[in-house]
Specification:
The chain has 293 residues and is mainly alpha-helical. The protein has 2 domains: 48 residues, no CATH class; 207 residues, MetI-like (MetI-like fold), CATH 1.10.3720.10. The chain has 13 helices and no strands. It is flat.
Length: 293
């Protein structure tokens, strides 16, 4: 069935429609203005930045701040740029997203279709865990990881991000699966499908929209995280957000705002890329997961 809206378009602009367009335009300008300032500042040299014309386009394009932000900018007294923290963040984000999304999809599937004893209690625990401030759990988890010998290691911080991501992702997957026709599941059971086969061959192929939602939420949350990375990653495995924070807060020398802006844009490229290539799936998945609770 086609989902394209039908009917005639309005021939005349009404006052309400003009007001709506103006409101959308103002909102777009409001949210795009910081990005505009960051981009044009990163393309100016320091003499032009000191002229304090923050909204003016650069008179002469200068690209030296971009390679410097990537490989030469100083974090404290170490001048290696964003590159080390960038690859550390990838090492943290990729396995954390894969493990947390995979386990949450499996949990949501079990809660939606396999009503085992205590399923509602477990679902209630997930709901409870989704709304607990993770700052409350930092110290107990730190002590647990220290006892296990994985504190200040990449597996340690990957485990932390997986734990904190699973409650809300389980809730999202469960609500999406509940909205699917139960007859598909019953037909698969009649055909001899077991727990794993139904999940792999029936549920997973229909899970693309909600999986995209989960991936975007996890990538954004893990990539932009500061507190958990600072506490659990240790000095040798700091994620990029910590690197960027130290670059912006220069300890010595002259603050180079064009380099800071370039570093900020480079930091945000990964979550922006993930969202822009899957934005329509994100909207579809959010709507599908909200149909039935």
């Amino acid at each position: 069935m086609s989902t394209i809206p039908s009917g005639r378009r309005p021939k005349h602009l009404t006052v309400g429609r003009i007001g709506m367009y103006c409101f959308i335009l103002v909102c777009a300008i409001f949210f795009l203005m910081p990005l505009y300032v960051m981009v044009i500042t990163s393309l100016k040299d320091m003499d032009e930045i000191r002229a304090a014309n923050i909204l003016n386009l650069p008179k002469e394009l200068s690209f030296y701040s971009w390679p410097k932000a990537w490989s030469q900018a100083c974090t404290g007294f170490v001048c290696e740029g964003l590159k080390p923290g960038f690859f550390n963040s990838i090492k943290i984000t990729v396995p954390s997203v894969i493990v947390s999304v995979g386990l949450s999809a499996l949990n949501g599937y079990a809660l939606a279709f396999w009503r085992f004893r205590g399923a509602y209690f477990f679902f209630g625990l997930c709901m409870f865990g989704a709304f607990i401030p993770y700052q409350v759990m930092v110290y107990p988890l730190l002590k647990i990881e220290d006892a296990l010998g994985i504190y200040s290691t990449l597996p340690g911080i990957i485990l932390v991000h997986t734990i904190f991501g699973m409650p809300i992702l389980t809730l999202i997957f469960r609500n999406f699966y509940v909205s699917l026709p139960i007859d598909l599941f019953k037909a698969a059971r009649i055909d001899g499908g077991n727990f794993i086969k139904i999940f792999l061959y029936v549920i997973i192929p229909m899970s693309a929209p909600i999986t995209i939602v989960a991936v975007i939420l996890q990538v954004t949350g893990i990539w932009n995280d500061f507190l958990l990375g600072l506490v659990f990653a240790g000095r040798d495995n700091q994620p990029m957000t910590v690197q960027l924070n130290n670059i912006v807060q220069v300890d010595y020398g002259v603050a180079e705002y064009n380099v800071d802006m370039s570093a900020t844009i480079l930091t945000s490229l990964v979550p922006l890329f993930v969202y822009f290539i899957s934005g329509r799936w994100f909207v579809r998945g959010i709507a599908a997961g909200a149909i039935k609770g």
